[in-house]
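REVIEWER CHECKLIST
Item 1: Sequence provided? yes
Item 2: Single chain? yes
Item 3: Sequence as submitted:
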Amino acid sequence: MNAITKYITSEIKLSTYNEKLSKTEVLFEEHILVWLISGVTKIIHANSTYTFEPGDVFLIPRNQLISVVLMPLNGVPHKSVAMHLTTPRLKDFYYGLKVMGDIKSIEKIPCFQDHPLLSSYLASLLPYFEMEGKFPNEIASLKISEAISILRVIDNSIDAYLANFEQPGKIDLSKFMEKNYMFNVPMEKFGYLTGRSLTTFKRDFQKIFKSTPQKWLTQKRLELAHYQLAEESKTPIEVYYEVGFENLSHFSYVFKKQFGYSPSSLVGHKSRN
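Item 4: Structure as written out by the authors:
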């Protein structure tokens, strides 16, 4: 079996993945706190790429387009504990609490490296995955509240993100698409994140870019891939999933159709020049 997932509750899970590489493009509707036990996790978020190693604890923000790449390391499976910090849970936690500073959206992936308070807490969850029977809801609630409390102790800016319960509003479509075009998600998701229905999204897109969304997205992704291959000396297998293509063969086909030569012909191009 390539992937195994064990749940304490629907909000807390232990995932083990044995394949060489897994890439998923997602839009979480809630914050996800992740403790990486083994393997490597790479997260592509807007214009930034984050690489996490065993022992790292990081927070994946809600309502953000990201690509998650899971990689086993040296024959050891990729294993992680993930805790969903749902909006109802967070609202209950913050009820009556005074939040200092401005409420805002997370624009990066916060990482809490090797913090003993958080690491020891997450390690204490592991025995629960071996329990038989249903995990008591009241204990699950306490464990999630404990996690939020620890985050508030070790990061005094975290309230500004966790206490933000706003839904995406109508934003600048041009700026958003220029920042997020490498994410291969349904058009409905692009519409939702820019505060538009699918129909309004397509209409506004045509007005701004003078093109259909799919044609523009493919062109932008190919241009980025060409730059990474020619100027950053990356290989096609490193590039295709980072720029939003689902598989290497399709990427190679449309790349050659666009530029007249294969992606592999650019490998080592900069070093030769």
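Item 5: Key structural point noted by reviewer: Residues 149 and 180 are 32 Å apart (CA to CA).
Item 6: Recommendation: ____
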